[in-house]
Specification:
By secondary structure, this protein is mainly beta. The protein has a 7-stranded mixed sheet with strand order 5-4-6-3-2-1-7. A hairpin with a 5-residue loop joins strand 4 and strand 5. It is globular, with a radius of gyration of 13 Å.
Length: about 130
C-alpha cells in the first residue's frame, strides 16, 4: 500500500466526526529539495503541507509555531503535536508521512490520533 506522490497540490480530507468533513488545501513535498525547504521562510500556510516520506521534523529557522501530525502507511494519524520555532521532533517509528499546518488548525479540522485521512492528488501514481 505504498504511496508515492510528486511535488504539487491536492486536497486533504479529514472526517472530524462531530465536526464534519474538512477539505483542506494541501501542498505536497515529495522531493528531497521540497521536503528540506518545508515551511521555512513562510509567515503562514494556506491549508497543510504533506512531507512524503518523513517520520520527523524540526522547526529551526521557522517563523511560526506549527501543528505536526505523523501518519502511518495507511494514512492513519499516529500523533499530533504543536511545535514552537527552534524545536527538534523525535522520529516516530511507524510514521511514513508528516503533515504540517499553522498551530491550532488541526484541532479545528478534527485531526487527532486514530483518524484516517484521505489525500486527493492528481499527482498520485502508485
Amino acid at each position: 500500500m505504498a504511496r508515492r506522490w510528486r511535488d504539487g497540490w491536492g486536497t486533504l480530507v479529514v472526517d472530524g466526526g462531530e465536526r464534519g468533513v474538512a477539505e483542506v488545501p494541501l501542498e505536497i513535498a515529495a522531493s528531497y529539495r521540497a521536503r528540506t525547504k518545508g515551511l521555512l521562510g513562510r509567515d503562514s500556510v494556506d491549508g497543510a503541507l504533506l512531507l512524503s516520506p518523513a517520520n520527523s521534523v524540526h522547526t529551526f529557522r521557522m517563523r511560526m509555531p506549527i501543528d505536526v501530525a505523523y501518519l502511518d502507511r495507511r494514512l492513519r494519524v499516529i500523533a499530533v503535536r504543536t511545535m514552537q520555532p527552534g524545536q527538534l521532533g523525535l522520529p516516530r517509528l511507524r510514521a511514513r508521512y508528516v503533515l504540517e499546518a499553522e498551530a491550532g488548525a488541526m484541532a479545528g479540522w478534527g485531526l487527532r490520533a486514530g483518524v484516517r485521512v484521505v489525500i486527493e492528488a492528481a499527482t498520485l501514481h502508485g
